[in-house]
Amino acid sequence: MDEFEDILEPRRNHFDIRFALKSRDSVPMYKYAKQQTRTQVKESVLASPRLKFTIDKISTEKGISRNDVEKEAEEILEDMAHSQSLTNLRTLAYIFPKLYKRLLRHLYVNRDGIEKLRSQVKDAPIILLPTHRSYQDFLVMTYVCFHYGLPLPFVATGQDFNNMKFINEVLRMCGAFYIRRSFGSDDLYWALFTEYVQTNVINGELPLEFFLEGTRSRTGKFLPPKLGLLSVALEPYFTGKVPDILIVPVSFTYDRILEEVLHAREMLGIPKPKESTSGLIKARTILQDSYGDIFVHVGDPISVREMAVPRIDRSVHNTLPRFLFNLSAAEQKFSAELAYTVQDYQLKHIYISVWVLCATLLAQKPQGYTLREFCRDVEWLKDLATNLGAKIAWPGEYSVQTLVTSHLKRHHTFVNLAHKNQVAVNAYEGSPQSQSPVEFSCLDEVMSLAVVPMGIAMYRNHLLCRLANVCILATSFCGSTEIKIHELFIRFWFLTRLFQTEFIFRPSVVETEFPATLKKLESCTFLQVSNTEKTVIVLSNGVKALQFLSKMIEPFLLGYWMVLQYLEQSPCKLENDNYSKTVAKNIQAHIAQKVIDGERKDFETLSLNLLNNALTSLVSMEVINKTKSDNGGSLTWKTEKIQETMNKLGVFIPGSEQNAGITKRGNSRGPQLSLTSKL
Q1: In 509-572, at which residue ranges do the beta strands (DSSP E only) sit?
Q2: How do beta strands 302-303 and 246-254 pair?
Q3: End-to-end CA distance of the chain
Q4: DSSP 653
Q5: Which of 49-53, 180-184, 463-467, 567-571 has the weakest average pLDDT?
Q6: 561: closest CA among 648, 467, 441, 640?
Q7: pLDDT value of residue 580
Q8: Tens-digit pLDDT profile for residues 168-191
Q9: Listing from the earlier edge strand, what are the strands of the sheet with 369-370?
Q10: What is the dihedral of CA 620, 505, 351, 334, to 10 degrees?
Q11: For residue 212, how far is the Cα from the chain centroid?
Q12: In angstroms, how far is CA 66 from the centroid of its own chain?
């Protein structure tokens, strides 16, 4: 476990004004840093060969005067560029501690990571890559840097925030630079964006900060890394403009996320309110609530040079114009490997809160527990997760009941502790608020009730994404207690391929993940591997654990099953301008109708995120085909392929044989072994 210190504690005992006005004369700087004002940076960008080439190209191809293109470039850059102001930052350094002291109990940071970063700031330009779970991520990162006297980052921020009057300029003066969510084939914007980022990276005056996931994860899971901005930021190293770049992974862990209800609603497809200053003012009611602790883990800096030297030949750029963005295939592959390396590091240093353990239990048993039973199971799950490699934020000075009750009270939006010490999910059948079965009359009622289970699942996913490989391997046993290693691997391979968009799996490493995961479960004395008979036996000590772990993945199995079932019963082609989202919405309505009819209670399967991921995965597996055209595009599929995939998936789902002729889960030595030939 890492050593953390609470950086809010000094603020509770000392004047905030003294903190805000403290000297920054000793802030470490990159040894080759080139200090430029905002105006000088813009002038450098506009005078760059890359931009001149792009302006000439656009002027020639589109028949637009060069002056008009230059004017457009200046306007875009003015709108994009940050204007970090120490005066503004000092003002916020006075305000934010007052807000954090009201909202939070603790703000923990690993001091060791900070000192490692401080010692290497002078060696190379810095890129900070935090996880992205909340709007406040970049403000927390800036606050941490200010507290420890580190250079304050300039931060890639979505254009949405630039539409918030007054707030947009406050964020800009904190170091935010605004970029569009996508800019496709807009050559001028691409050139300005690339040159602006690289000019700042080469100058090395401020660390660059952005989120590999591209956007906030609403699900609590990691999103696949977006490589565009990372590739742009790495190009100065590939082309020899900087000797090295240091990549710093940062993991944020929140006890309670400010936007938790908003995230749950968005997963159901309920549109989020547009970012606006008036919306921010209306949200001031959050100041009346408690949000627990935040853990910030600053990772060891990763040297791009040390990682790249064995495999990247930078001399290939010597014969190419330096103003053309042109990464080699090896450099593109390296960028992807670096992104996955960072996400591996981030994932391993996520701290699981007591509430996440509570949510994981309640997701499987929403009708509730007695408090005594609940505390017992929370402690059991804490030990299980720890043995499997998860890091648990578990203060040792408190009793289990004290910890559990405090977290339940903090998360009163989703759960309640009342009615003779019964722990239950709010507004759910069987909870104290709902003594009789819930009946629905319309889709809106279903979606309204689904918000709470969706929020519970979001927090459960914090642990699930950490234990995804273990949960998938546990599911691969299909309830049997003895299985051939080859058969187990085939099932594991199928599920990792099926869930490639749900969880972060490095490309082409299933072969190494399988034995590593098997060994992890064996070291916990849950399994016994017989190399002579090439079988795996579930020991009595592991039955409960494997059942629980496989239950964690069950909502995803059911969701994917429902998608396949819908496609099987539908025409084999859909054409639409927005066909993928249309299919997902139709499937969601189909599932909701089953809930209304009382046939299902699987609220998690209403998640549009899950349904879209299922469709994307099925396209990748070539179960369904996706084509694009000038009129939009289409999804097509063959009923035989859908049914074949349902047969494969049905093996893992208890009771699926009731929905179609699926081989029943059971002894792997029986008919279930036919799965190998199907795969």
Answers
A1: 527-530, 535-538
A2: antiparallel
A3: 41
A4: S
A5: 180-184
A6: 648
A7: 61
A8: 899 999 999 999 988 878 999 999
A9: 369-370, 422-425, 415-418
A10: -110
A11: 9
A12: 42
